[in-house]
Amino acid sequence: MKKLFVLAVVAVMALGASAQNWYVGGAFGYAHQTVETDIDGTNVEVKSDIFTIAPELGYNINETWAIGATLNYTWAKDAYNRFSISPYARYTFFRTDNNLISLFVDGGAGLGYLKPDEGDSKCTWEIGFKPGFAVNLNEKFSLVAHVGFLGYQDLKEAGKTYGVSLSGNDITFGFYYNF
């Protein structure tokens, strides 16, 4: 019984020590999209508002590397709903001396489904890199932004895309709480 108690105390202490490396937070994004399309020989302008919310959980392995995952939900007015999960590895390649600002790139993959307003659900996936930066307000709170995407996306409804993207759909702002 004594050994079990000591083991439990050590386990709780280890969990408490490792909790300092976890972070939780999320991001949001908004884009307004205008697409010109040809419908039955008539040029039509289709406008859509796109909202994204992405809660996130991660673990800092060391000062340079972190791993995590985001749950992404995107709603495009009069177009589609998309849900996906995106695990990633984060490489932080620059920090200021006072640790106020850091630059990083997330390399990862995402898998999900897209439900158009009309039609059947479709599987979606992506693989690529998302650069970003963080402003560390204090030890516990950080403001974070992801800007752009470099990789391959198969979003079915929007088609297959590869290359570099810096559209409003690829810019998100969020925060982290560091344990």
Automatic annotation (TrEMBL):
- The answer to whether UniProt assigns keyword GTP-binding to this entry is no
Going by the UniProt record, its keywords in alphabetical order are: Signal
All residue ranges annotated as the Outer membrane protein beta-barrel domain in the record: 6-179
What are the boundaries of the signal sequence?
1-19
Q: What Pfam families does the entry give?
A: OMP_b-brl
Q: What is this protein called?
A: Outer membrane beta-barrel protein
Species this protein is from: Heminiphilus faecis
